[in-house]
Amino acid sequence: MAGEDRETQTKGLRLLGILDVQNTPCAREAILHGAGGSVAAGLLYFLATSRVKRSFDVGFAGFMVTTLGSWFYCRMNNAKLRVQQRLIQEGIKNKVAYEGTVMDPTKKGKQVSICPSCL
Q1: Cβ-proximal residues to 45 (8 Å cutoff; 6+ apart), any chain
Q2: Which pLDDT value is given to residue 104?
Q3: Residues 6+ apart with CB under 8 A from 53
Q4: How far is it, in rounded angstroms, from Cα 102 to Cα 81?
Q5: How far apart are CA 99 and CA 107, in angstroms?
Q6: What transmembrane ranges does the database entry give (predicted)?
Q7: What single DSSP character describes residue 65?
Q8: Domains identified in the chain, total number
Q9: What stretch of H or E contains 35?
Q10: Residue 66 pLDDT exceeds 60
Q11: 57 lies in which domain range?
Q12: How confident is the model at residue 21 (pLDDT cuts 50, 70, 90)?
């Protein structure tokens, strides 16, 4: 019984058996935003027209649009954040490598050329 619990915990929650919601970045938030968008779109359309079937269709479309929009927005922000983190890490590596040398970018004062004969 303990083995089954451990297996369920490592497997994670799967949506329709395809998407591992717990381990996929942005999946949980996108699904929750989509659920809210579908309720809002369907309910507003129903209040405006009183057509049940069409309200369901509009709600489903609202779910798809809101989920995909939220998914792509979150993924783009994550990608931008990873690029910024990579640039900062490279900058820190360069600072550590060049610290105390003539190529130290933080040194103030006169510029020291690497090639004195190039002047």
Answers
A1: 51, 54, 55, 58, 59
A2: 72
A3: none
A4: 32
A5: 9
A6: 30-48, 55-73
A7: H
A8: 1
A9: helix 27-49
A10: yes
A11: 22-98
A12: confident
Location of structure tokens 């489903």? 60
Nearest CA-CA partner of 92 in 102, 105, 80? 105
Residue 90 covered by a domain: yes
Angle in degrees, 0-180, between the axes of helices 27-49 and 52-98, rounded to the nearest 10: 150
DSSP single-letter state for residue 23: T
Query: Considering the domain boundaries, does residue 6 fall inside one?
Result: no
The DSSP secondary structure of 53-108, one letter per residue, reads HHHHHHHHHHHHHHHHHHHHHHHHHHHHHHHHHHHHHHHHHHHHHHTTSTT-TT--
Res. 36: pLDDT tops 80: yes
How confident is the prediction for the chain on average, in pLDDT? 81
- CA geometry: angle at 56 spanning 55 and 59, to 5°? 85
- In sequence order, the 6+-apart residues with CB closer than 8 A to the CB of 66 are 33, 34, 36, 37, 38, 41
Both tokens assigned to 105:
């970018």
